[in-house]
Write a structure and sequence with these properties.
By secondary structure, the protein is α+β, with helices and mostly antiparallel strands. The protein has seven helices and 14 strands. It is globular.
Length: 258
């Protein structure tokens, strides 16, 4: 699809900006422990310019502006996170990405670009998932004791928070547990079989829209934390390589009460 090609172009151009600006930026807080940088803003402006030049009638929903340009109607809009993993970016930790999704009620296309390692993940609805144009699939791991798992926490999580209890509960049951700092890349790592499962409780639509399409098109399973459908507007989600691992993750998190 033509949109997917333009999305890749926009992601690559934004990635070039991020690489050029890393180490030269000033960060400011937009909330407790939540950083935004000049690079976020510059990358989003670049993405919007590229997309709007080809598709001027599409709406645009970006993390750094919420609604910039056109309408934010779900009937046809871009959903953009210019840096997914801003804290990693600020600290020079090379695990961050550019995420762009096309939503037409459902998400129909998504790209996630890791500029440091030149890794372009992409998917279209019904068209499969790819890494640098090579098809990818999830692992076949079906049980938590054999699974490498990742988690995302909200900024400023407290010691008594349910997220910490979830973390401990999974930690003692899985093979290993990671907290890597980029939700979009975590989803892609499940899609390509590097990770076997991932869960998060406080994502925004721009964190998850593209990545969820990539992981499901790669054969992965997903649900909300309680095992029901994912609400993309407020994603509290689990993704896993297999249905059996997803069920075990849901059951494990259900052991924790707030």
């Amino acid at each position: 699809m033509r949109e997917l090609s333009v999305m890749k172009q926009a992601a690559r151009e934004a990635g070039t900006i991020l690489l050029e600006m890393q180490g030269k930026i000033v960060a400011r807080e937009k909330g407790p422990a939540d950083l935004v940088t000049e690079a976020d803003v510059a990358a989003q402006h670049c993405i919007q310019r590229v997309l709007e030049a080809e598709f001027p009638d599409y709406g645009f929903l970006g993390e750094e502006s919420d609604s910039a340009g056109g309408t934010v109607s779900e009937s046809c809009r871009w959903v953009v996170d210019p840096i997914d993993g801003t804290t990693n970016y600020v600290h020079g930790f090379d695990n961050y990405s550019v995420s762009i999704a096309l939503q037409q009620e459902a998400v129909v296309a998504g790209v996630i670009f890791d500029p440091v390692h030149n890794r372009m993940y992409s998917a279209s609805l019904g068209g499969g998932a790819f890494l640098n144009d090579v098809p990818i699939r999830t692992s076949d791991v079906g049980s938590l004791d054999k699974a490498l798992v990742a988690a995302s926490f909200p900024p400023g999580v407290q010691r008594e928070a349910v997220e910490v209890k979830h973390f401990v509960e999974v930690l003692v049951k899985c093979q290993a547990l990671r907290r890597l700092g980029s939700a979009a890349l975590n989803l892609c790592y499940v899609a390509e079989g590097k990770l076997d499962a991932y869960w998060a409780t406080s994502l925004k639509i721009w964190d998850a829209a593209a990545g969820l399409l990539v992981v499901t098109e790669a054969g992965g399973s997903m649900s909300n934390i309680e095992g029901g459908p994912v609400n993309l507007a407020k994603p509290r989600l689990i993704v896993a390589s297999t249905d059996s691992l997803l069920k075990e993750m849901v059951d494990t998190l259900a052991l924790v009460t707030e």
